[in-house]
Amino acid sequence: MYLNQAKSHIEKLLHMKTPVFMWGSPGIGKSSIVKQIADENKWGLIDLRLSLLNPVDLRGLPFYDEKEKAAIWLRPEFLPTEEKHGKEGILFLDELNTAPTSVQIAAYQLVLDRKIGEYVMPKGWRIVAAGNRETDAAMVTKMPSPLANRLIHLDVSANIEDWKAWAVGKVDSRVIGFLNFKPKLLVRIPKAEDKAYPTPRSWNYVSEIINLYKDPFDADEIINGAVGEGPAKEFLAFMSIYSKLPSIDDILAGKYNKVPKEPDVLYALCSAMVPKMKDQYVDNFVKYVLKMPAEFGALAIKDVAKNGWNEQIVASKYFEKWVEENHELVMDEV
Question: Which domain holds residue 164?
Answer without folding.
Answer: 160-329
